[in-house]
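seq as requested:
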Amino acid sequence: MNMAFVKWRLSLVSLLIAATLTGCMVGEHELGGQGSNTVRFSLSVPGVAVPRRGATRSLTEAQEQAVEDVEILVFDTEGENAGKLHARKKATKVTGTTFEVEMPEGTYDLMVLANASAIVDAAGLAPKGTTWDVATAAMTHAATGKWTAPTVPMFGYLKGRTIDGTTSLTGDDAIDMHRML
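struct tokens:
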């Protein structure tokens, strides 16, 4: 097994355990006072991972594709805070791979994270201070052995997306998700 992959998986498991043990909760963070809109999102989740030769499956197909919680990291694209975290938004009304989020109006880069709330909490990302690159690095982890958590953390992103009263990211605009494992 590739040593970098082993380290990546070990770090992920350690981070999840640490976040669970601390019981730390980070609320929604948002800067500014511009208008907001409820935006409907859909996720396009990856198919079932094929185990490498000799490996066994530890999760069912439904578990690999399940989405229990979704957070969106919203990054400014303009002004003095361009490239920095603007807000952390939690999804509501999660039904399968569809959900709603109250989003600020404007043009943003969006990092969508499914089943990763504990990872985001442990990363301690702060508005105005966290860049896209820092957030991406915080979501990169290592683990060893089988993944036994009930769901698989996933990520997806949209760059330069305008959020207004007509925004709906469903159907052909669904966000392509990738496993973080």
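The first strand starts at residue 29 and ends at 30.
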